[in-house]
Every structure is written in C-alpha cells, then in structure tokens.
Design brief:
The chain is of the alpha+beta class. 23% of the residues lie in helices and 35% in strands. It has helices at 31-56, 73-78, 83-89, and strands at 63-69, 100-104, 113-118, 122-132, 136-145, 149-160, 163-170. The chain has a seven-stranded antiparallel beta sheet with strand order 1-7-6-5-4-3-2. The longest helix has 26 residues, at 31-56. 10% of the residues are buried.
Length: 171
C-alpha cells in the first residue's frame, strides 16, 4: 500500500450521494417498504376523501318518525308534557344500563328538564321549550359527551280515525 500525503485514501467517501426526485424513492427498492409506501398513500387518499365527503355533506339533519297509537290524541299528549313522563316510555334507557337520570324544573310544561349521564349514552339534557296543548311539544336536546351537539325535537300529535298519530321530528 502506498502512502497518501495530500489526500485521504480512496474509499466510501469518494462516492457521490445520489438524490432522488421523489422523497420516498428509496422505499421502492425494498419490497416490504414498497408495500408500506403503498399503504401510506392509500391511507392518505382515504383521509382526504373522508374530509371531502364531510365538507360536501349536509350541514343539517332532519329525521322524522311516525307511530300510530290506539288512544285518543289527548291521552297521548298527556304523556309528552313532562320529562318524567317521557322518561317512562323512551327507549333510550334500554341502551345503557349504567345511565343515571335526574329531573329539573317543573314536572310539566315549559322548563321541565331531564339530565342524564351514562357510559353508552354519554352526558346531556333535554328541556321542554314549547307546548301547544293537544298538538305539539318542542324540546331542546343538548349533549356534552361524547360529542357536543344541540338539536331540536318536535313531538306532534294528530287525531286519526283509530286513535292518534305521534310524529317525532329531529332537527
């Protein structure tokens, strides 16, 4: 071997670094990394698609459910004017055995409120805000957990030939 007085011996330092035009090009040289790169691109594309769908989706929701009840409209309406009465027939409590419910305000009419906390149902309140005798009950529904929301619920009672129809509107 010779002696090098003025420069370092030839070796790895003499190789020039090659830069790629794409930041992840080195991943395509290794098959497992190529699969990871493909997966990463798919996940990013799905995320962008989801954001676009959310952005382009409706800003408001309106759901209506109707039920025929074989009872006079006045009798049905009596079960809608207080939160304690509503809690007696609402199906939501069956979904969460850990739910704790309390009631605030007057027993009936505007201001009657129900507060709940549960593992499945989360936390929220319902408050009667409007009553039109024998016809309509308006309710403000607020949840604070898991997702904070505010909605309006309208319960309409209509007399029919066989009893009455109850219409539930969620906005």
């Amino acid at each position: 071997m010779g002696t090098y007085w003025f420069s370092d011996p030839p070796g790895p330092r003499d190789r020039k670094l090659q830069r790629s035009s794409t930041p992840l090009a080195h991943l395509s040289q290794n098959p497992p990394m190529r699969a990871l790169k493909t997966l990463l691109i798919i996940v990013i594309a799905l995320g962008v698609l989801l954001l676009l769908l959310i952005r382009l989706g409706p800003a408001e929701t309106h759901i209506v459910r109707r039920s025929a009840i074989q009872a006079p409209a006045g009798t049905v309406f009596d079960h809608l004017t207080g939160m304690e009465r509503i809690a007696a027939w609402t199906p939501w409590q069956e979904l969460d055995s850990s739910v704790v419910i309390s009631f605030n305000g007057p027993q009936e009419g505007v201001g009657s409120a129900m507060v709940w906390t549960g593992g499945v149902l989360g936390h929220g309140t319902q408050t009667i805000t409007d009553v039109t005798p024998d016809r309509h009950v308006g309710i403000t529904l607020r949840t604070t957990h898991p997702v904070p929301t505010t909605a309006t619920v309208h319960l309409y009672v209509e007399p029919t030939a066989t009893g009455s129809e109850l219409a539930w509107h969620y906005e």
